[in-house]
């Protein structure tokens, strides 16, 4: 009443005033009232209060209205909700359709280091860096159209000039008639996420650097090993040629003893074994080098020629026979059809060599079977189908031998734009390396380096096919098709 009477305000009100009144017979009654006080003209004051006389100026009028119990309870709930939101630990604010701040809770004001009067009533873009003002305008338009904003990274200036990174979520409140009322804005401090993302990117960069150093080391190592191997192979081939000549001459020379002839023959056999082992080593070096290129994202460029299928298959089956256990039969079956296939002979030989070598290693009894048939793709195009089947122990049904070799992601730079992508990239890099180790451990059984299937899978893809696999005890089959 004092503020209205002194002219500071035209009207004032107070709600939920608990008062004790006297009822009938003087019984005290307790109730809640809403009271309001306002200014009225002197003429109206004289009418309302005939015992007083006002000349000019204004009078005061006090009006009270009892509150129902339901109204009191609802107001108590509303007051509790308002207090809960105002003191919530999450920064909250509301804005109008133009992005002007209408209200902010204590957590928002504390984070921005502003008072209520300094913060409320200003546009959101007033606190945004210059490079995000357009983003603020676009978000205001989107929100006005009823769209939700979820986890959008934004930055706001604090009162002290510092920048706080935030994640923004919004939804819209509509009035009863469906019109836009205000936007609810929910903020979360984004500093922790950005720190984790920076750490993940640093870890990925370090892993890329380590892998690059490892690849460089491997390339140099393979080069230094391959060069002397090639020299030794040439020297051994020359020595084997000389032994062949000496053995041929001694066979017709009766002056040479039987023991000398046997020694020359034994030396030739030992030399053949050495040349074979050296050839295997050179082939392994080539496989490791090519596999390294595949991991780096390089593409194999086949050298296409018309390949005679029978001589090539007969040659790789002969090599397979030397690797088979005693009593294991090697079978070659080439179906009727074209005798030649336009493909890269060297790469086709490598694939068949690895598949047959794998079959020979795991087959203790029974047979290793290579079949070549002629068929068509679903679209009618002709194709040549290669099947390598063995009667070995088989592979457990829960192991996807081919699927494990599908490369998850190129070993390039780490993806940008979020910690989730960075974490996925880290996982993909680790999986790629783990697959190498797993392949070497579970499939080679210490008899190889575990690269054959992985290399075969990549080569068949480069030749236009895809390596497929099926297995059960006593019947394991790898197959692939190449186009004519």
Automatic annotation (TrEMBL):
GO MF annotations, alphabetized: photoreceptor activity; protein histidine kinase activity
GO biological process: phosphorelay signal transduction system; regulation of DNA-templated transcription
Family matches, as Pfam families: HATPase_c, PAS
Gene3D superfamilies reported for this sequence: 1.10.287.130, Histidine kinase-like ATPase, C-terminal domain (3.30.565.10), PAS domain (3.30.450.20)
Keyword Transit peptide among record annotations: no
Catalytic activity: ATP + protein L-histidine = ADP + protein N-phospho-L-histidine
Alphabetical list of InterPro entries matching this protein: HATPase_C_sf, HATPase_dom, His_kinase_dom, PAS, PAS-like_dom_sf, PAS_fold, Sensor_HK_Regulatory, Sig_transdc_His_kin-like_C
Keywords: Chromophore, Kinase, Photoreceptor protein, Receptor, Sensory transduction, Transferase, Two-component regulatory system
UniProt keyword annotation of Transferase present: yes
Signal sequence annotation: none
Transmembrane region(s): none
Residue ranges that the Swiss-Prot or TrEMBL entry lists as coiled coil: none
Enzyme Commission number, as recorded: 2.7.13.3
PAS domain boundaries: 77-146
Domain Histidine kinase: 220-484
Protein name per Swiss-Prot or TrEMBL: histidine kinase
Organism: Mantoniella antarctica
Lineage: Eukaryota, Viridiplantae, Chlorophyta, Mamiellophyceae, Mamiellales
């Amino acid at each position: 009443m004092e503020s209205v009477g002194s002219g500071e305000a035209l009207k004032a009100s107070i709600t939920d005033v608990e008062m004790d009144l006297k009822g009938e017979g003087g019984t005290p009654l307790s109730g809640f009232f809403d009271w309001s006080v306002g200014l009225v003209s002197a003429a109206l004051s004289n009418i309302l209060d005939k015992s007083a006389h006002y000349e000019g100026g204004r009078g005061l009028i006090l009006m009270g209205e009892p509150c129902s119990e339901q109204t009191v309870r609802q107001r108590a709930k509303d007051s509790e909700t308002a207090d809960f939101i105002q003191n919530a630990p999450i920064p909250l604010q509301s804005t109008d359709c133009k992005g002007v701040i209408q209200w902010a809770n204590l957590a928002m004001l504390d984070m921005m280091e502003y008072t209520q009067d300094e913060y409320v009533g200003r546009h959101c873009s007033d606190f945004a860096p210059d490079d995000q003002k357009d983003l603020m305008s676009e978000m205001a338009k989107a929100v006005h159209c009823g769209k939700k904003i979820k986890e959008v990274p934004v930055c706001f200036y604090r009162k002290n000039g510092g920048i706080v990174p935030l994640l923004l979520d919004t939804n819209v409140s509509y009035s009863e008639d469906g019109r836009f009322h205000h936007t609810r804005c929910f903020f979360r401090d984004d500093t922790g996420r950005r720190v984790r993302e920076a750490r993940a990117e640093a870890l990925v960069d370090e892993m890329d650097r380590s892998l690059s150093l490892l690849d460089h080391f491997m390339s140099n190592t393979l080069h230094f090993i391959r060069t002397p191997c090639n020299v030794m192979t040439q020297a051994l081939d020359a020595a084997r040629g000389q032994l062949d000549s000496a053995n041929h001459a001694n066979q017709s020379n009766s002056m040479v003893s039987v023991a000398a002839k046997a020694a020359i023959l034994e030396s030739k056999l030992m030399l053949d074994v050495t040349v074979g082992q050296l050839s295997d080593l050179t082939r392994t070096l080539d496989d490791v080098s090519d596999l390294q290129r595949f991991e780096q994202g390089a593409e194999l460029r086949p050298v296409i020629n018309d390949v005679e299928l029978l001589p090539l298959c007969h040659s790789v089956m002969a090599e397979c026979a030397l690797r088979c256990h005693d009593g294991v039969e090697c079978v070659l079956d080439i179906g009727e059809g074209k005798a030649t296939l336009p493909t890269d002979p060297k790469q086709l030989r490598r694939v068949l060599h690895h598949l047959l070598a794998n079959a020979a290693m795991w087959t203790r009894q029974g047979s290793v079977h290579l079949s070549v048939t002629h068929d068509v793709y679903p679209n009618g195009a002709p194709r040549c189908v290669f099947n390598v089947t063995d009667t070995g122990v088989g592979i457990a049904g829960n192991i996807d031998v081919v699927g494990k070799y599908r490369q998850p992601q190129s070993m390039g730079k780490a993806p940008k734009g979020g910690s989730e992508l960075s974490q996925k990239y880290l996982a993909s890099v680790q999986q790629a390396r783990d697959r190498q180790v797993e392949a070497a451990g579970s499939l080679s059984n210490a008899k190889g380096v575990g690269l054959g299937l992985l290399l075969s899978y990549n080569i068949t893809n480069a030749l236009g096919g895809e390596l497929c696999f099926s297995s059960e005890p006593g019947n394991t089959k790898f197959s692939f098709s190449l186009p004519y």
